[in-house]
């Protein structure tokens, strides 16, 4: 299907934090986008539980089974099966499993941007390029620089000014590339992005 990044229902497990991504709707374009995550006992999400922000979209966590803890601006919110929690654009957050078994949730970005590609890339890098991460699963500085410079305005680390992060990542990204760092899934640009948006406009709602 036009605009499909990977086959629907593709599962990729982050080996560092017991998080399995299920890409239920892996399409480019569209107004919003979503995928599922399954967290094992003790599992976390949000870049190995690193507080971060999405500057241009709200993020909604809808729990299907288990219990999720979503930290929003330093305050813990517990979300049970059938409930949702919304993180507004610009709010610092991360999430973790608050259940002694698995927790499954749907993650929705109200402004799609290219978050499907962003998270497919992240999941693939953890599985295929573990040396891009520390032994605890934190992305190395050059990994972060390459990814966040490519996917501008999708995600930033909570705390440091965004302008400073943009400057630093733009500075370090060429070095990362020179040293052999590569994305698994690159963002669309130009004609490719326009074509994906056109395909999304005629794709049946699901």
Automatic annotation (TrEMBL):
Entries under Gene3D superfamilies matching the protein: Jelly Rolls (2.60.120.10)
Q: Which domain of life is it from?
A: Bacteria
Cupin type-2 domain segment(s) = 46-107
Instruction: Provide this UniProt record's keywords sorted from A to Z.
Output: Isomerase
GO MF: isomerase activity
Q: What is this protein called?
A: Mannose-6-phosphate isomerase-like protein (Cupin superfamily)
Give the originating organism: Martelella radicis
